[in-house]
Amino acid sequence: MNPETGKTNHGASLPGGGWEGDLSPLPKGSLGDRSATTLRAEVLIQALPYIRKYNGKIVVIKYGGNAMVNEELKRAVMGDLLLLKLVGVRVVLVHGGGPEISDLLKRLGKKSEFIDGLRVTDEETADVVQMVLAGKVGKSLVSLIQTVGGKAIGLCGMDGHMIEVTRLDDVHGYVGEIAHINVAPILDVLEKGYIPVISTIGCDREGHAYNINADTAAARIAAELRAESFITMTDIRGILRDPKDEGTLISEVRASEAPELMREGVISGGMIPKVESCIEAIRRGVGKVFILDGRVPHAILIECLTDEGVGTMFVQG
Q1: Active site residue 274
Q2: pLDDT tens-digit map of 53-91
Q3: Is the pLDDT of residue 156 over 60?
Q4: Domain spanning 53-315 has what CATH number?
Q5: Which of 274, 293, 294, 309 is flagged as catalytic?
Q6: Residue 106 annotated in active site
């Protein structure tokens, strides 16, 4: 199918390995090697219309939390971002870091408390959030992109008042609700040929740091950038009809279906803000929106550059 009209087989497993196979150089000589080489050539040919479609377009990828646990996969993801950039995609990486924040708070003897899925954030916790996201996590991702041969610059939501927020309420403390996104710093970094790596910390008009939901921030950034695609990486296959059975993947969800899936408990817990952010991105005009399985090698390339899909796609309607 023409990539302008969508995937032909979204959510299916890849025949013959597809992008999941070993992409290392092949030894020359045998017919078997030629067959493998032919398969790789076919994959590249299949990618061509998608490369044309995405050339010069913005793709926003939200990455973080449990999807970042495996170091080998994390390095592979950064390599995929570099490949997308090399074929003309304008890549924006937005990251969270909830597990890392909780880990540091625990080591500091401070208990993590959540209300309605949001971290209660006093002034000390806000400092830890800023330290972990803009410091440890953000800088490690920038370094990793540079290690695989790319160029990246770390940005924090406080830079240039990029993510301006208002206080959500007194119960949650320094937790912000997004009021405005200033995309100028992001576009400046893209224009200079770098991959922006954005730490999701908000600020109010007085410059105070606020903890914000990374999924929500990434969706709003994608919308304000008028991104072609918004991709959320997670550690499950996508939306599962039965959360205990990965064979029950729902490959496509209409925006109007999401509330009912939440009422049924199909979408629950930590998936709720992810799905809500995807629906928000769709409603604000982002072209294509996906939740992908970050455990699948080269999941981003499979989704962007082939006829296949490895997660759940969200559509209007």
Answers
A1: yes
A2: 999 999 999 997 666 777 888 999 999 999 999 999 999
A3: yes
A4: 3.40.1160.10
A5: 274
A6: no
